[in-house]
Specification:
129 residues, globular
């Protein structure tokens, strides 16, 4: 058996398409946020009021002053949680889940083509109390 056959057999035996889809969605959101922070904001200096953190396959967050947008992925439950934390507590913004091979959020079906627009709406919430 050659390497490609082994890879194919392993994938067929363990792959979960829904889990792969939720990770793809999370990674698209994470990469878009990295691009936003490092290239679009394009701030070279370090600022106490602005911070981006990320951990692959787990979470990323953007802090603006006392408000934090935090996006986490739960592979077991095939969900992405979007929350805003502030001095007054944690507020649920949205949840993205996989149902029957489709991404669903609070507003309905979620498309990977919507990532930048979706995150822009989330970032805007950092300016509200």
């Amino acid at each position: 058996m050659n390497r490609e056959e082994v890879v194919s057999k392993i994938r067929k035996n363990v792959a979960d398409k829904d889990k792969e889809l939720i990770i793809k969605c999370f990674e698209d959101l994470r990469y878009s946020s990295i691009y936003f922070y490092h290239l679009e904001l394009d701030l070279k200096a370090k600022y106490d009021d602005l911070e981006f953190k990320n951990e692959i396959y787990h979470f990323f967050s953007l802090r603006l002053k006392e408000n934090i947008l935090r996006v986490t992925v739960d592979q077991e439950f095939k969900r992405i949680y979007v929350n805003k934390a502030s001095n007054s507590g944690v507020e649920r913004i949205d949840e993205i889940a996989v149902m029957n091979g489709k991404l669903i959020c609070d507003k309905g079906e979620f498309s990977l083509n919507q990532v930048n627009e979706y995150l822009s709406d989330c970032y805007a919430m950092l300016f509200t109390s």
